[in-house]
Amino acid sequence: MIKSELVHRIATANTHLYERAVENVVSAIFDEITNAMVRGDRVELRGFGVFSTKVRQARTARNPRTGATVPVRQKALPFFKAGKEMYGRLNPV
Question: Which of 52, 55, 60, 62 has the greatest number of CB atoms lying within 10 Å of its CB?
Fold first, then answer.
């Protein structure tokens, strides 16, 4: 599912809301999650999961074609861990 499909489904389920208003709300939520992760905060949505960042330290890698060493900078990567409720719905017992 892509963002426009999500907006359309929410607008269809809530006919009293305009699709443009739903799009603004969805964009605001995604922007706030992204901004929190940029600040280094973690975002926890109970029952859904946790968004956080993991830092990969700088290292020296090798170019497989030439064998030359290449410096790789430190990186922050987005990380998502599913909540207990979501995990349970995906893997019923």
Answer: 52
User: Is the Cβ–Cβ distance between 50 and 83 less than 8 Å?
Assistant: yes
How many angstroms separate the CA atoms of 62 and 70, rounded?
A: 6
Alpha-carbon distance of 52 to 17, in angstroms, equals 31
pLDDT digits (tens, 9 = 90+) for 42-88: 999 999 999 999 999 999 999 999 999 999 999 999 999 999 999 99
Q: What's the structural domain count of the chain?
A: 1
CB of 53 within 8 A of CB of 37?
A: yes
CATH of the domain at 13: 4.10.520.10
